[in-house]
């Protein structure tokens, strides 16, 4: 039980199960894995990537180790997405990938090709705010504001999936976002305001 | 001169946050960490991987050989000593984070490791390694005594003792410490994530030798400070040197999250041995505290944040006639302390309120009553009563451990205070010829609403809406103001805005001031005597300009603002 899973052991395990199936098949599989590896062997030099960001095709040339967050902020000048912890604990870098909230610090840019990426800049601008953004302004759901884009993205994903969530669902949707100033009460108030206006729309 | 209006229209009312929220919620607000001036370079710091070491040599050449690296500097000229894990050794600037990471890994450091100590209790022992070779780890204790402590303890009905500990805490502002700095032969431009733009300017001047008038610091948005963001910091100085080294290009040096946990301040720990004596009726008679805590490698309690040392107010809050306090700051091989949110008070409150609870239990007295009995503040005594009533204290409180079952739950009470107050600030108020009002002040908005309060005060003074005031802050080109720490910004800035508005209004209300205003703004007035039906009337005209101007009236201190009416040269000007 306490044998650690190393990558080698893991691959060996995969190989063994393939052998258990059919030797010939395993050989073919191994070959195809190898050729796949050849095709995918990229870097460490920069490579050209094509990203779909906020409905636009954006080309960047970055090393394969560059995170989506780094690419967005430092190569595409989309600095609304914030870098805070850079280790998947705070949610400030939240973007939507195919509509799902994702920590952009935990994704490599190279993995994100052919995905629909939405950043805070892809929502409303200062003169045409989305309901979530508008509610944040009206409820003063921020102090220093550095966590705000992340919260707005998480809540935007929530409201797209469920237009009139409960407070519990709102809190859960924000549970991956951290506010150091402690603006949570106003943030939840803003989210509830959006939920209420959705409810009154449907009823 | 008119003072604060008797029936305020803006003050004391609820207002939306001034201006910037729509920029923040759309990601359009540019924080220091978002600054990417043309030609900017990414920068990172190499930090000591040793808690104590003598650095003999730092070879930057391998770093400079990394593709994309444009500059590398040492933090100090070797040989030098590092005193904690995380102390700055060198810094690099390059085209990307990846280039910088590779360069940091390539720098060769030759060092002799030194003995170290990282725990407060260990550091106090004579046999322990010293953080600074020429001084003991324990600083000179701060001692205070009032009354006759030993005699008083002999007269009390109850004595309780306790040992309480609070740990070192990190600030962890969401935006890390850092600056975007460009050094050119003409001077320095610095975007700083700071609570004090002028202290950043001073720090850069100290670091670089560039005179103050050649340094321009800007902080439009900042992502949290909590007491840890004053001055340019070592990272600011390094960024300036990298900028120069790289050929005067802008360098953005924001700390990593890991750096943030090591090198830019923390709340000191506290180890408090407390003895408290009281009469049967709960009157506190005698108090004794023996405490120590660490300020990291900054021995003696002096810290980079200004305040925030290991000492704390004791006895806290309560009236006790006989007290003896002895507090010691202990150096260890760790990052230095800095002011953090009411520096000293959480430690003080925790120790004092804990021993009070012990005393309440020993006397069989209600904890709220014990506090009311000994708190010298009438306001707080009333607050306790109101709070206890609204909370339902009497129904909810039970003595510790008396709830049934192995899992114990309970309620408690405690107090804490903070001072705040104001300091000097300068403000420039301009009434433009088109009736618009600008207020400029070299303060900064940490998200606490500084811009909003400036707009409210100015709006009140001019009879306008807050949104109509242009508030410009966060720039050392504006009149100097203090750092935003210790809850002092509102109290510093508001009176200065009030004074400046009042002076502007007074100037316009006097004939010489009005004439000076007309000359300053190049406004030429014409006077036309009417013939015909308006015979005998004089009309003021401004023949040379096309915008209308708003004049204040001396009596009410308000301003008629006709708006930006682009009118014919014959638009009459109303003069109060």
Task: Describe the structure concisely.
The complex is a heterodimer of chains A (203) and B (576). Chain A has seven helices and five strands, in the order ααββαβββαααα.
Write the layout of secondary structure elements.
The complex is a heterodimer of chains A (203) and B (576).
Chain A: H1 7-21, H2 23-40, E1 47-53, E2 56-62, H3 68-75, E3 94-97, E4 100-103, E5 116-118, H4 131-138, H5 148-161, H6 167-173, H7 184-202
Parallel strand pairs in A: 1-5
Antiparallel strand pairs in A: 1-2, 3-4, 3-5
Helix pairs in contact in A: 1-2, 4-7
Chain B: H1 21-25, E1 41-47, E2 53-59, H2 61-64, E3 69-74, E4 80-82, E5 88-94, H3 97-106, E6 108-113, H4 120-124, E7 142-146, H5 149-155, E8 158-166, E9 169-170, E10 178-184, E11 187-192, H6 197-208, E12 215-218, H7 233-245, E13 251-254, H8 257-263, E14 266-267, E15 270-278, E16 284-294, E17 322-330, H9 345-363, H10 367-374, H11 378-391, H12 393-396, E18 428-431, E19 437-441, H13 450-462, E20 469-473, H14 489-509, H15 511-520, E21 526-529, E22 538-541
Parallel strand pairs in B: 1-13, 11-12, 16-17, 19-20
Antiparallel strand pairs in B: 1-5, 2-4, 2-6, 3-5, 7-17, 8-15, 9-14, 10-11, 10-13, 15-16, 18-19, 21-22
Helix pairs in contact in B: 6-7, 10-11, 13-14, 14-15
Provide structural commentary.
The complex is a heterodimer of chains A (203) and B (576). With 203 residues, chain A is α+β, with helices and mostly antiparallel strands. Chain A contains seven helices and five strands, in the order H-H-E-E-H-E-E-E-H-H-H-H. In chain A, strand 1 and strand 2 form a beta hairpin. In chain A, helix 4 packs across helix 7. The longest helix of chain A has 19 residues. Chain A is elongated. Chain A starts with 6 loop residues before the first helix and ends with a helix. The relative contact order of chain A is 0.11. The N terminus of chain A is likely disordered. Among the domains of chain B are: 87 residues, Aldehyde Oxidoreductase, domain 3; 172 residues, Aldehyde Oxidoreductase, domain 4 (2-Layer Sandwich), CATH 3.30.365.10. In chain B, strands 3-5-1-13-10-11-12 form a seven-stranded mixed beta sheet, with helices on both faces. In chain B, strands 7-17-16-15-8 form a five-stranded mixed beta sheet, with helices on both faces. A three-stranded antiparallel beta sheet of chain B has the order 4-2-6. In chain B, helix 10 packs antiparallel against helix 11. Chains A and B meet through helix 3, helix 4 and helix 5 of A and helix 1 of B.
